[in-house]
């Protein structure tokens, strides 16, 4: 047994030793996406690769100076933060008041336009790079081995095509939606589209809803998000280059996902699942937190965080949540930056920030109250902590509906949240072992992999550098029109042939009959 | 770097150490399929698992006594060897005389019936097991953790269903054809069906051929191969159990394949590619062979083997091959059990058997003349030796057309083979570096994996034992009718709705027009 493990190690080391320390061009996306990209960058840097990061002039999280990379900064129009914050407040109000979906859709249209503008800004910035001959020469001379990018914005894809670089995605979303929908067959009969909040077991009406939402979002995203890239490709690459196929043609898709999180679905040879690559064992807590956690005794601790964007809840909701917490014997650590709720019990500690990973990994932690962002859900799976979910926007409802289907979460509707409902949900997850047992199983399955997700991701990045791409893992399908791909021409031809044969047979029989009748008539 | 490799080793070892030494029931297939299965069995045994092998009373290769497993032998009707050998001779003659496809098809129909009979025999043997209450109690009491089976015959699938055991396939073919077609979306526009000898880049006419062959084979295989299992399921499991979905429901599919061999195509989360798991570094040659090989000097060596079944060629073909070899400066080692050809040059050594793996791995070996069986092609890829292909039957033409597309083989048509054609092909592969360079690249890609294929396979077998299956990797699609799977009901409903709306709108407009006209008339 150990012998074979050792052989694996040796083969691994030989691969690592033989690795060319490469030059990687990174075109990341700001915000929470950067947190994930930075983990890859730090790891790649530690393995001796040289990284250059392209960033916009007004980045929020991507620092200009770093020990891990050299950065190149370009002017870019600002992402409209103010509008975005207003949007969040609006969204929470609409969700809270359970207004008609019409209101949500109008708000959705507003945000579509804002994001569309930002896609345009990214294209403008990329055009600036393309038009700067000195810079393009510099890129050519630097002889990069690879473009590593997050395709939820397309600048990296465009630049990689221009520079002829192999392309690796750090991806869950592309410009057009969930990554799988770009490249893998996705039967809508059991694959819920993002935003549908459905599972892989759907009733007839749910399947109708799924198809309708798919049709609408494909149209919207092509119109609002695809347009800037379409225009860009037409200008810089000519009319024969389809921007969508540039995305589909990436060498390796490192998916921030796996099948303990996602529903099982068709996939492709060049999709590598690295879900949970950001997770790590917990470290000991700082003294004051540890004391608080230990004071919970046998009851244990509840931790609550709704991420950075939703840290500041509507005050009436915060009051209801505080009141529910106050009725429990557990201790509560709540990351909350709004006004201190009047109902706050003395079992509840409000914090501006918490070491979420270390708390989730603490044996006293019983429940995680979360909005359902991807990172938080992945960490909950990794540490095996069941969830009370308060989904607010974006992919959160979908992420949490996956957890509910797997029996690892109870979801509280934001519109119906009051102290009773919330307390009910907390008690259910605290005292019904169903949820924690399921989450522990999921955690065990998630950790039971031949290789750690981060090592797996790095292997494939280095693989693409070693081999100058991975063309043998990319299918022919993206060089085909939908007409050809679905064999529509063949089916029509075969149907035509059958019809012609039927018609000929019929005509022949008719002819024969006529002849027979005529003969009969003549004879008579 | 090494640090991270060590971490991977430690995580591997912890998984291995924690492994439960399990009990595995194996339902193998005889012949060349057993060679592959035995490799898994030996490895599983070395890791401490206990194996029980179910075998028929007249097995050719599966021995009753083994240090690696306990066997259970059951009476089974004999596979008609005599007919089979006659079939092979017939087939070679038909291929040689390039007779119309009609002859081939008639012969194909004969072999379909023979194989169909053997499927019936396997079902009879399985029924014997099912009807033996003592035996079934023994199986139940033994508490196996897993059924490992080769699904080209279905006995293991049926028994696993009855015993409620998790199911792992060692598979390239199932009862119904190539394994992927059973479970993964397989667009016929770029996935060539077995027997079509096409690639993943097809012209319109080739795509028509592909769809036609698919339609015919699906029908044939369901009729000739599926029928015995359908009847068996109906009798033992009741009408609601569909035998096909029992196959689709396997936990893990260990595919004897990878994408250096196969064209890239959609796949599923529970498909694990272990292509080349049987390959190993070459050992030194026996003295007399080594002397012969070394005597080739700078010219190097050609090795030729057409496998066990085709060892004995038609004598006129053998003469042409011998004459071609005689004109080359290379040394030739030819595994041939027929009469010694008169044209044999003194550079050619005839052998009954050869250490094929050790010869393929020898640096002096320049070309491999092969019939294109899966194992031989995998070994050629592993060792990076280009191929002159003489495809004769079964999957050989398809295997070799894959190699030709990848620029690693020249194929000689059996009907057109004479000394000139064969010599031409040999010289092309010997002296045009294109083939050996492509094969060396393929070899490098094949070996560049995070884990050795055999270790990968064993990991997933043990995974299924540790976790009692892998339900989270199996999609919902197999619980659906094709009607639902392809959303036909939803599409028809939505089309209906659109038509109704159009009709209503039209009627309304018509009504309004009528009213307007009537008003006008009245006014006038």
Notable characteristics:
seven-stranded parallel sheet; homodimer; Rossmann fold; six-stranded parallel sheet; alpha/beta; disordered N terminus; 2 domains; 19 helices; 524 residues; 15 strands; globular
Task: Explain what the structure shows.
2 copies of one chain form a homodimer. With 524 residues, the first copy, chain A, is α/β, with parallel strands linked by helices. The first copy, chain A, has 2 domains: 18-185 and 250-277 and 452-478, Rossmann fold (3-Layer(aba) Sandwich), CATH 3.40.50; 287-447, Rossmann fold, CATH 3.40.50. In chain A, 52% of the residues lie in helices and 12% in strands. The first copy, chain A, is built from 19 helices and 15 strands. The first copy, chain A, has helices at residues 2-17, 32-46, 81-96, 101-131, 133-142, 155-163, 179-183, 204-237, 243-248, 287-294, 315-326, 356-360, 374-383, 396-405, 419-431, 433-447, 453-467, 482-485, 488-523, and strands spanning 23-27, 50-56, 70-74, 146-149, 167-171, 173-174, 177-178, 252-255, 271-273, 301-305, 331-335, 348-351, 365-370, 387-389, 409-411. In chain A, α6 links the parallel β4 and β5 (167-171). Chain A is globular and about 110 Å long. Chains A and B meet through α1, α8, α17 and α19 of A and α1, α8, α17 and α19 of B.
Number of domains of chain A: 2
- Return the average pLDDT of chain A rounded to an integer: 91
Q: What is the subunit organization of this protein?
A: homodimer
Largest interface: A-B, 69 and 69 residues
Task: Please estimate the helix content of chain A.
Answer: 40-55%
- In the predicted model, the low-confidence regions of chain A spanning at least 5 consecutive residues are 1-17
Q: Any idea of the CATH class of the largest domain in chain A?
A: Alpha Beta
Please state the structural category of chain A.
alpha/beta
Shape call of chain A: globular
Strands of the largest sheet of chain A, in order across it?
3-2-1-4-5-8-9
At CATH level 2, the architecture of the largest domain in chain A is: 3-Layer(aba) Sandwich
What is the number of beta strands of chain A?
A: 15
User: Main sheet of chain A, how many strands, which sense, barrel?
Assistant: 7 strands, parallel
- CATH topology-level name of the largest domain in chain A: Rossmann fold
Tell me the CATH superfamily of the largest domain in chain A. Answer: Glycogen Phosphorylase B
Terminal CA distance of chain A: 96 Å
């Amino acid at each position: 047994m150990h012998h074979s493990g050792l052989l694996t190690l040796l083969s691994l080391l030989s691969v690592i030793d033989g690795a060319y320390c490469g030059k990687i061009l990174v075109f990341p996306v700001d915000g929470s996406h950067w947190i994930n990209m930075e983990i890859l960058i730090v790891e790649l840097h530690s393995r001796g690769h040289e990284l250059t990061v392209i960033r916009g002039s007004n980045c929020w999280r991507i620092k200009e100076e770093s020990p891990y990379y050299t950065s190149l900064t370009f002017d870019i129009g600002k992402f409209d933060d103010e509008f975005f914050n207003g949007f969040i407040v609006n969204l929470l109000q609409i969700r809270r008041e359970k207004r008609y979906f019409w209101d949500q859709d109008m708000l959705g249209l507003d945000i579509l336009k804002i994001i569309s503008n930002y896609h345009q800004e990214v294209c403008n910035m990329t055009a600036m790079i393309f038009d700067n001959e000195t810079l393009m020469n510099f890129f050519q001379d630097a002889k990069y081995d690879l473009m590593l990018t997050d395709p939820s914005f397309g600048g990296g894809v465009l630049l990689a095509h221009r520079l002829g670089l192999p392309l690796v995605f750090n991806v869950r979303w592309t410009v057009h939606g969930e990554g799988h929908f770009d490249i893998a067959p996705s039967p809508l009969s059991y694959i819920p589209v993002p935003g549908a909040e459905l599972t892989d077991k759907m009733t007839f009406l749910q399947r109708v809803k799924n198809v309708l939402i798919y049709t609408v979002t494909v149209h919207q995203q092509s119109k609002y998000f695809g347009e800037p890239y379409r225009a860009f490709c037409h200008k810089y690459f000519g009319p024969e280059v389809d921007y969508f196929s540039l995305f589909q043609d990436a060498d390796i898709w490192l998916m921030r996902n796996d099948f303990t999180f996602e529903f099982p679905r068709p996939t492709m040879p060049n999709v590598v699942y690295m879900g949970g690559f950001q997770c790590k064992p917990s470290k000991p807590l700082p003294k004051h937190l540890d004391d608080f956690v230990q004071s919970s005794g046998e009851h244990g601790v509840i931790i609550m965080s709704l991420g950075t964007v939703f840290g500041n809840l509507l005050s009436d909701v915060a009051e209801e949540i505080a009141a529910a917490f106050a009725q429990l014997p557990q201790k509560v650590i709540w990351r909350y930056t709004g006004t201190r709720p009047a109902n706050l019990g003395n079992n509840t500690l409000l914090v501006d920030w918490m070491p979420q990973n270390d708390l989730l990994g603490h044996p006293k932690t019983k429940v995680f109250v979360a909005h359902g962002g991807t990172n938080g859900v992945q960490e909950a799976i990794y540490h095996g902590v069941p969830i009370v979910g308060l989904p607010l926007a974006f992919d959160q409802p979908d992420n949490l509906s996956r957890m509910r289907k797997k029996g690892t979460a109870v979801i509280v509707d934001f519109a119906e949240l009051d102290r009773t409902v919330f307390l009910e949900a907390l008690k259910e997850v605290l005292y019904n072992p169903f949820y924690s047992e399921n989450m522990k199983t999921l955690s065990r399955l998630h950790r039971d992999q031949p290789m750690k997700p981060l090592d797996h991701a790095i292997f494939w990045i280095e693989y693409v550098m070693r081999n100058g791409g991975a063309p043998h893992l990319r299918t022919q399908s993206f060089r085909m029109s939908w007409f050809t791909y679905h064999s529509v021409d063949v089916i029509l031809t075969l149907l035509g042939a059958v019809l012609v044969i039927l018609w000929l047979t019929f005509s022949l029989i008719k002819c024969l009959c006529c002849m027979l009748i005529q003969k009969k008539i003549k004879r008579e």
